[in-house]
Amino acid sequence: MSRVSFRVISTSAAVLLVFAISGPVFCPVLAQTKGGPVGKAAVAELMRSRQCVSCNLAGADLNNVDLSGVDLSFASLRAVNLRGSNLTGALLNGADLRGAKIEGANLTGVGCLNCNLGGASLRGATMAGPGQCRFDRG
User: Fold this and answer.
1) For residue 20, which of 1, 2, 5, 9 has the smallest C-alpha distance?
2) Is the pLDDT at 1 greater than 70, yes or no?
């Protein structure tokens, strides 16, 4: 039997209903405002659940955050700040990372098939291990 719970997060800009289920979390409306309350709620949910498939974290500040093993497949991560973050073993398959700042991040074993890294900055990032990356032009 599946267990489902939910909570309502309300701000002046939006009302967000967050479901917690055993399985991938599909959250396409999260983090609509850069650095605003909804963005902070989305980051908090990501850190709690360790997954945010198809969600919008565009422009989020995830500087020096431990994101090891998270599933961000098909997420919008445009212009996200991942400087110095640990993404060891993370799934970024199909993610949009255009313009992302990924300098000094640990990308060891990251799965990023069909991710878009157009204009992303990867200076000093560690890219070793068994992960599968194909860098598509964006």
Assistant:
1) 5
2) no
Tokens of 126: 């560690």
Residue with tokens 């489902």: 4
Query: Which amino acid makes up residue 36?
Result: G
Q: Which of 39, 105, 28 is nearest to 73 (CA)?
A: 28
CATH number of this structure's domain 27-138: 2.160.20.80
Query: Which position has the token pair 């963005």?
Result: 39
Nearest to 135 by CA among 114, 108, 105, 109: 114
> What confidence score (pLDDT) does residue 131 get?
54
Mean pLDDT of 14-25: 39
- For the chain, the structural domain boundaries read 27-138
User: How far, in whole angstroms, is CA 10 from its chain's centroid?
Assistant: 22
- List the single range of 67-76, 104-113, 128-137 with lowest mean pLDDT: 128-137
CA distance 123 to 125: 6
